[in-house]
Amino acid sequence: MSELEYDYIKTDLTELLEESEEGLERVKKIIVSLKDFSHIDEEAFAPADLHKCIETTLSVAQNEIKYKAEIIREFGELPLIDCIASQINQVIMNITVNAAHAIQEFGSIHIRTGTQDHKAWIEIEDNGEGIPEHIINRIFEPFYTTKPIGKGTGLGLSLSQTIIEKHNGLLEVESTPGRGTKFKIWLPIKQI
């Protein structure tokens, strides 16, 4: 083997090892995020960090979002919230992925958090197409979807509303066609 071939193999091998390490780190991060997202066997209310729920969900949904929108975080101070974290993750996922799908080109999704009157809130606002006034009252109906066949089941928002009601919370929506949509999730800090 010539000196030139040896140098090439040595350089190539180093690059391959670095790429493999980076790939393993990405896989590790995905596995940790999926584990945090799913909270397998979790059915009881327990104190949870909503900011961690949001970040975990964004990590899991990254491929659905990254080519559609920039995520802009505006997090306020939040105490731990009594909830079933895996279910709240699912709600955040449903609303955030819907927001990304509503954006035609490349836009933004603002995620804000805060507290008011012993309740925590999460606001997810996009600058997508918005929801026409004549259908906004139907978006929480099971199987209702405006997406093409094969692109949506029409269950995401219905399920999200059911989960938030189970948590003694409220799911609100405001939309302006052509300007975007804002969902606001209200959750009691402590379950009674």
Give a topology summary.
Blueprint: H1 3-38, E1 46-48, H2 50-60, H3 62-65, E2 69-74, E3 81-83, H4 85-102, E4 107-116, E5 119-126, H5 156-166, E6 170-176, E7 180-188
Parallel strand pairs: 2-4
Antiparallel strand pairs: 1-3, 4-5, 5-7, 6-7
Helix pairs in contact: 1-2, 2-4, 4-5
Describe the structure.
It is a single chain. The protein is of the alpha+beta class and 192 residues long. It folds into two domains: 1-38; 44-188, Histidine kinase-like ATPase, C-terminal domain (Heat Shock Protein 90), CATH 3.30.565.10. It is 42% helix and 24% strand. It is built from five helices and seven strands; from the N terminus they run αβααββαββαββ. A five-stranded mixed sheet has the order 2-4-5-7-6. Strands 1-3 form a two-stranded antiparallel sheet. The longest helix is centred in the first third of the chain and has 36 residues, at 3-38.
